[in-house]
Amino acid sequence: PPAQTNASLPPIRSRQFGAMHRAMASGGVERLGWRGTHPRVFHGIAPGLTPQPVLPLLILSGRRATPMGVFIGPPWLESSYARAVTEVGASAARDEIDAAIERLLTRWSDPRRIFHNTRHLIDVLHRVDELSAGTHAPALVRLAAFYHGAVFEPQMLDLEWGGDLEPLRLPRGANWEDEAASSLLAWSELLRLGVPESAAERVANLIGAMQDLVPLPGDSDSMALIDASLGLLAVEPQRYKTYLAEVRQENAGVPLRDFLEARIATLDAVLARPKLFASLEALSWERRARDNIAAELVRNRKELLRLDIDAAVAARLREGETDDGGTFATTQ
């Protein structure tokens, strides 16, 4: 059975497939194979059984195989993180660095994260790479991207949008990336790895600026990080619709009206800005992002109007209003 086989697996410490095969074999699994077209998720075939994904696993260096449903990420995330912390001066041994990225990716793999998960982290990291030519300290920006939404909790937040815009009050129970808490986590974890205090504080400040999505004045690193985060608004329309569906699923506990009102307030505030992206390298994203936002606002306002109409009809039915002296009635 999958549970028994999974429990018998030793930790896998090597990035080499040979070592993975040997570790799996010791747990009763004969070989590894790709599952579908996904290069990060493997399935095992137990001896004597018809080939089928009897043991869905994530095989990653430094981790036990994990049941399907939690996407941790590809091995290059570990090396990317290790390279970044080393570049900014970490003095910790590699096993301590591996343990830190383990803790971090476990956070990003929280099953409550439907959109803001490891896949989203990877997308942000890719966009950071696209914008890195205009940054002053790419390794610090990359570390800030790794930690920017590491803390993800149901909460009530005030988001300051800058300028004369009113703060946004998120509905109670909304799942949201908590940049303030994430910045403290980054600062603590980086100091633990022996990163100089000035570098750890810099990463924390970059993350903290993401709470209001307004870059630090004249700061190209802050511009790149926030643009990389906002870049999700500039994806092709079908991917944007998938993003919306996943964010809604992520916040399924929030009543639809509250969710729509929060989205409309957020998007109105974002769209009111003279420009969405501050980095020169991200200017080409502007048009598509504005088109996606405008289309979503139209859909959200139509949906909110439908809710208003339904609520008005329901209220009229409850109150037993009359027309021309007769009782108001309806049929299903």
Description:
This protein is α+β, with helices and mostly antiparallel strands. The chain has 12 helices and 10 strands. Strand 6 and strand 7 form a beta hairpin. Helix 3 crosses helix 6 and helix 5 packs antiparallel against helix 6. The radius of gyration is 24 Å and the shape is elongated.
What's this entry about, in short?
Strand 6 and strand 7 form a beta hairpin. Helices cover 51% and strands 11% of the residues.
Secondary structure layout plus pairing:
Elements: H1 2-8, H2 17-26, E1 31-35, E2 38-45, E3 55-58, E4 66-67, H3 76-87, H4 94-108, H5 118-131, H6 138-147, E5 152-155, E6 158-159, E7 168-169, E8 174-177, H7 179-192, H8 197-208, H9 220-230, H10 237-250, H11 256-271, H12 286-319, E9 322-323, E10 326-327
Antiparallel strand pairs: 1-2, 2-3, 3-4, 5-8, 6-7, 9-10
On the 0 to 100 scale, the average pLDDT is 77
Q: What is the count of β-strands?
A: 10
Q: Determine the structural class based on helices, strands and strand pairing.
A: alpha+beta
Q: How many strands, which pairing sense, and closed or not: the largest β-sheet? A: 4 strands, antiparallel
Q: Beta-sheet strand percentage?
A: 5-15%
- Tell me, briefly, the overall form: elongated
Order of strands across the main sheet: 1-2-3-4
Q: In which range does the helix fraction lie?
A: 40-55%
As a whole number of angstroms, the C-alpha radius of gyration is 24 Å
Give the helices and strands as they follow along the chain: HHEEEEHHHHEEEEHHHHHHEE
- Tally of helical runs: 12
Q: How widely separated are the two ends?
A: 50 Å
List the uncertain runs.
Answer: 1-71, 155-170, 326-332
